Amino acid sequence: MLSFAKFCRQPSLERRLLISAAVLHLLVAIGVRVLPFARARHALDRLAAFGSQAPRVDDIEARVVRAVRTMASLLPGANCLTEALVARCLLVHFQREATLCFGVSRIRPAGRPFGAHAWLERGGEGVMGVGAVAYDPLRHPRPYLPSPSPFSLN
User: Is 142 a member of any domain?
Assistant: First the structure.
């Protein structure tokens, strides 16, 4: 658990990351419940681009993940989706790539129709949220192509 004294002893970048992660967690937890997912994600993408900067720190990915996990353990409404969205927003803000991935477990959890998970990857490697249970990634079998119009003359 993060005490106030421990928070104050953190370097300024760590404190900013913790505060940003806390605020984003609360916004994302509310946003994914009241907005369509595409709108919530679009809002996060715009927020990430606001004042984006390239850090002069090599281990910014590890620091972001640590801040997000710390805040997720303290705040209500945190789950794998909110953690992945918050971490992606912060990483994009610091000009680091991260792909949001979704998967479904082959093992059915008790009392639920299926188990699902969200995580971040970069270049096929897990950045955050890669769990011990294997999840089959949800991928579209081919690129999306609109259906032909029933009114076309072809």
Answer: no
